[in-house]
Amino acid sequence: MSLLARGKNISAVEVTNISAHGVWLLSKDKELFMSYKDFPWFKDQPLKVVRNVEEHSPGHFYWPDIDVDLTEEIIEHSERFPLKAKNM
In angstroms, rounded to a whole number, what is the distance separating the alpha carbons of residues 64 and 69? Predict the structure, then answer.
């Protein structure tokens, strides 16, 4: 039995800043801002949890430690997605 080698990780997503107001995410030279008001899942999380983000496909982001799954469209246009999580 032989195992296939894993493909290389092409994810270029990175958390560039965490402030009192929210989180900045950089993906393919595009910076996205997620305010805690619109994305409360990130508030009060440890730094390593917020920074542990994966881009499963272009514009589709996942934080496995807190099971948060967001798209670029949701981040850029949160007003189009009225369902909000309650503050944790």
Answer: 8
